[in-house]
Write a structure and sequence with these properties.
about 450 residues, Amino acid/polyamine transporter I, 19 helices, globular, binds phenylalanine
Length: about 450
């Protein structure tokens, strides 16, 4: 049990704030043309993400076990169909798949800790920063080394079950990350590209929004809040009953969103000040951040610290990716924690090799159209598995659990707030997910053509 409300907030924030905010949000915003995409993403966070996160915490706290077993005992207790348990299993699978590429990208951050410390970026030009990153992408062995290192760190931490140590770390390092982000945003203000960056992020040009962008915005809302796969549900199992779910969830979602927006405000000014391409893809953070620090006094020091903190934020997220599987193996199968951790690590590491290769040796191997192995994993987990998982979690909370359980868990006192929550979790959030799926299937351009 977390000993107080803040410990859960810290752990959940540690899970939510990660590569999704710092690396992924800026680059997919760049790929999707900015403003309109950002607005859709914010709407998804508020209307879909928050209710589903509440559903996850409340299911976890009511079940008090790993997600698979919480779902199992709640379906049995309330005589629901056994198929609900599949939602827990889907989460376990999603966690493995996501961790496999998450560890590769986190490895990039570790590599950049050393690149920054070497001071090589002092006064570098945009072209040089791009070239340095491309060179790294072209070295599978080097990338594999960092991937392995990150995975080993995760396995080491989770096998020792140092959740307690983790919270102390989050408590100190997370604020430090915010400070460094603020330094970067401050640099952005002076870089000469700030107005353009802000305009890109918040200027609404609906013409730039595509069906694929809409789908990405929804998927990213799930990814960045760690939703749809049981990570938050697993942590919810340790939340004391005195904690208000609504307040905590809103706090976490707001914090997570602020970090993503700050990352965007740090990165896009540098993009425009240096004539870089906002839609250049996954390398965006690894090109712009070294550039910015390279032009600052003490840049090597700050830059090193920044990537260290990115790596740290990635570790706290990676830990939560393993928690549904780990908790299940330990409680159900009586496997030793260290064995389960090693098993998860090996499977994810192997899968991760595919992601490593998709940036070099397999860069031209395309699956389902234009996708590399990494693209496919990223798309399948974030755009499909997480939203589907979240959809079922919301439906389960809203319709399969007795209303008395909901009221008790959410501390609902009035009929109005009960209706309000049911409307959000049982109607708005599921319809939001379904609507985006439907638009993606039909195609936004077709819809636009019909409308005009
Ligand atoms: N939310 C994490 C991030 O933004 C990633 C994550 C997804 C963690 C799903 C756990 C579960 O980086």
């Amino acid at each position: 049990m977390w000993s107080n409300r803040w410990l859960f907030v810290l752990a959940a924030a540690g899970s939510a704030v990660g590569l999704g905010n710092l690396w992924r949000f800026p680059y997919i915003t760049g790929e999707n043309g900015g403003g309109a995409f950002v607005l859709i993403y914010l709407i998804c966070i508020a209307l879909v993400g928050i209710p589903i996160m509440m559903a996850e915490v409340l299911i976890g706290r009511e079940g008090r076990q790993s997600p698979v077993n919480s779902m199992r005992s709640l379906t049995q207790q309330h005589h629901r169909h056994r198929a609900w348990v599949l939602v827990g299993w889907m989460g376990v699978v999603a966690g493995f798949l996501i961790l496999s590429f998450y560890a590769v990208i986190a490895g990039w951050a570790l590599k950049y800790v050393f690149s920054m410390a070497g001071g090589g970026f002092a006064g570098a030009s945009g072209d040089q920063a791009v070239a340095a990153f491309d060179q790294f992408l072209g070295s599978p062995w080097e990338m594999l080394l960092w991937h392995t290192l990150f995975m080993a760190l995760v396995v080491f931490i989770i096998s020792r079950g140092v959740v307690a140590g983790l919270e102390t770390a989050v408590r100190w390092l997370m604020p430090l990350l915010f400070v460094l982000l603020a330094v970067l945003v401050g640099y952005g203000v002076t870089s000469g590209g700030f107005a353009q960056g802000v305009d890109f992020m918040f200027g609404l040009e609906w013409g730039k929004l595509t069906g694929a962008g809409l789908f990405d915005a929804l998927g990213h809302a799930f990814f960045t809040l760690s939703l749809g796969m049981g990570a938050i549900m697993a942590y919810g199992a340790y939340v004391p009953s005195s904690v208000s779910i609504t307040n905590t969830v809103v706090t976490i979602a707001v914090l997570d969103t602020l970090v993503a927006l700050a990352a965007g405000l740090a990165i896009f000014p540098v993009v425009f000040a240096n004539g870089l391409e906002p839609g250049q893809g996954p390398g965006l953070m690894f090109v712009t951040v070294p550039l910015a620090f390279g032009q600052m006094p003490l840049g090597a020091l700050f830059g090193t610290l920044f990537f260290l903190l990115v790596g740290f934020a990635a570790i706290t997220s990676a830990i939560s990716l393993t928690e549904p599987a780990l908790a299940y193996f330990v409680e159900q199968r009586n496997v030793k924690r260290s064995k389960a951790a090693a098993g998860i690590g090996v499977v994810c590491w192997l899968l991760g090799v595919g992601t490593v290769l998709s940036f070099n040796e397999w860069a031209d191997v395309h699956l389902l159209g234009q996708m590399t192995f990494f693209d496919l994993l990223d798309y399948f987990t974030q755009n499909i598995l997480l939203p589907l998982g979240g959809l079922f979690i919301a439906l389960f909370a809203a319709y399969a659990l007795p209303k008395a359980v909901l009221k008790h868990q959410l501390g609902i006192k009035t009929a109005l707030s009960e209706k309000g929550w049911l409307l959000l979790a049982g109607v708005v959030a599921p319809l939001g997910v379904l609507a985006v799926f439907l638009v993606t299937i039909i195609g936004l351009d077709n819809i636009r053509a019909w409308l005009s």
